[in-house]
Amino acid sequence: MKKKAEKKTRAQRREDKQVILRIIREARPIYGWLVLASLISCVIITCAVMSPKILGSCVQLLYDFWAGTFQGSSLTRALLPGCCVLAAVYLLQSGMNYLKMYLLNNVVSRYFTCALRIRISDKISRLPVRYIDNTPAGQILERMNDDVSHLGGSIHDIVDTLTVGFLQIITLSVVMLLEDWRLALIVLIFMPLSIWLSARISSLSEKHFDEMFEESGKLYSVVEESYANYQTSKAYNFEADTIRAHQEVNQRQQKAETTANFLGAMVRPCITFTNALAYIIINVVGGVLIVNYGVSVGVVVTIVLFAKQFSAPLEQIAQGLSTMQRTKAAAKRVFSLLDEPEEQPLTGHLPENIRGDVRFEHVDFSYNKETPLIRDLNIDVKQGQKVAIVGPTGAGKTTIVNLLMRFYDIDSGKIRIDGQDISDVSRDELRGLFGMVLQDTWLFSGSIADNVAYGRPEASREEIIKACDEAYCHHFIRTLPQGYDTQVSEDTVSISGGQKQLLTIARALLADRRLLILDEATSNVDTRTEILIQKAMDKLMRGKTCFVIAHRLSTIVDADLILVLRDGQIVETGKHHELLDKKGFYYQLYTSQYAI
Question: Which of 20, 101, 117, 39 is nearest to 31 (CA)?
């Protein structure tokens, strides 16, 4: 058991080291700016070393004047140069601190966190649909926002810890030893204890930061789901359950965050305590040295001031170690997203003049390898045919569309368009063949004209109006306040569901793709709108190869070919009247819709 724990600890240390090294590598675009910030930090350290020395000299002058050993005509004239230099040093130190923070804040925000968020967004666009389907949107948002912000903050800590922290400790140690090695050793003896306590406490907080970020991602998902389904929650009086789910996740996240922050906050008091002990001992020993060994008051005051300064870099290092635990937890989540396997780019091309013939040859597919869904699927669709896909829920209707669009890749077999295997073709080129009108409409934030032209951005306003006129939505668009320039989104309530559906049909008409996928676009609308949608779809389907996922079988009675699916397999094929005459599974589905 002990060996296993030690092995796990070594593996964890290696992982932590790799994460930190990768954070440093990710900051490569801003290395130059970080070097500049480090040089500014060196100026700050120089000022920090000079000020106690100058102040100690001034105190020595005051002591000499009080003791009657002052040599000079005027104390004020003797103190004035030192005070002026001290004021200039403090002013320069403050200015350099401001310049460094301004530089780091702007550089890190512009060239690190912003660039990292752009990379994540670009990465998501290249991830397979399977990953997006299996990952809650809230977790992705949390990684892109909070986790990246923590990574940006870590750059500040790394610069401060490596330059202002360690470099200042080394410089102060050398200067104190030169001033008086006996007093300097008192300060330096306590330094290893402070650093050891900081590292020990910080390591204890790491697992709690991991848990905190995990629960934070779940919290994002719960909140996102609550707002996305707000009306449903209201309609079913589900608010109490939603609040309870939120409270449960929130309490777990709060507990983890409280523990992690508590352990992280303990570091600074420990540093302060050990430094206070050193400070007390220095004052006592310094007094003894002044009285018994003739050490000057100025030297003791200088060492005392250096000792006070010595706590600042130790606290910076301690704070950096504490923050690093939070940063490592955030970095692991961000890097795990960036390292997700991407869809492999393909450079193959389809024939120039696509007719629209589609063949499924012995296709097998499953979302879960342990649960086969589609087995030995064979379909032969000719150019211009209207093919209806019917079957009970879970039979694999939508899956066929997902495979055709290559949202998912088949396990075995071939899918061909005009004889070309689509697994060898660029996904962008393949998806450019299809127009889609789905049961769930979706409008993007922008004007109505922009939404209609979504599949063909270069379309002119006249072409957009013509497509809307053919889709029977031009009339209601003209009644809107700004017409085609009216701003809409998915949450727009001034446009009905049927009107949104007509807009999506206009979008497909304008795109004018060779193949169409239709997912029962006439459901959830009134009878009059259903007639308009059906007319618009008839225009849309002319001369195109169409795949219609049908739920209401009355809408596909004129289909050229009906594929009846059950448990991922085609059990019947034919036209409507042929399948009814067989009185098989399709007959049962059709008659069950009119049983009442």
Answer: 39
